[in-house]
Backbone:
């Protein structure tokens, strides 16, 4: 059984991922909190960081493309400025721009 993750553990994880990829985190505190809490709940239930805005099949292999950061994040951030959940954003993303739902790239 994986060690349970705290909110702070997850925040540290997503911060590290954003720095490593040259992205930034969603600057809306409420949205960011919801996404981190969703990732935390997924990790503590499934043992991996299933995307907080996609349904899990509760199988690591079947979900592997949507383990955060998902396989689609890089392209979505390039094309739209943010990932499907809006957790990660382009470093120079204009925060006054409204965040619209982007198309699901997952086949
Ligand atoms: S859409 Fe964003 S939050 Fe969801 S898995 Fe991909 S990178 Fe993570």
Residues:
């Amino acid at each position: 059984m994986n060690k349970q993750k705290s909110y702070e553990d997850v925040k540290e994880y997503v911060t590290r991922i954003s720095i490593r990829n040259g992205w930034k985190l969603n600057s809306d505190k409420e949205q960011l909190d919801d996404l981190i809490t969703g990732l935390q709940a997924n990790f503590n239930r499934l043992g991996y960081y299933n995307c907080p805005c996609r349904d899990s099949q509760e199988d690591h292999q079947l979900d592997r493309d949507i383990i955060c950061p998902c396989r689609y994040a890089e392209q979505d951030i390039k094309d739209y400025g943010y990932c499907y959940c809006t957790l990660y954003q382009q470093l120079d993303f204009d925060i006054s721009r409204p965040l619209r739902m982007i198309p699901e790239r997952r086949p």
Observations:
- The domain at 7-90 is CATH 3.90.460.10 (Ferredoxin Thioredoxin Reductase).
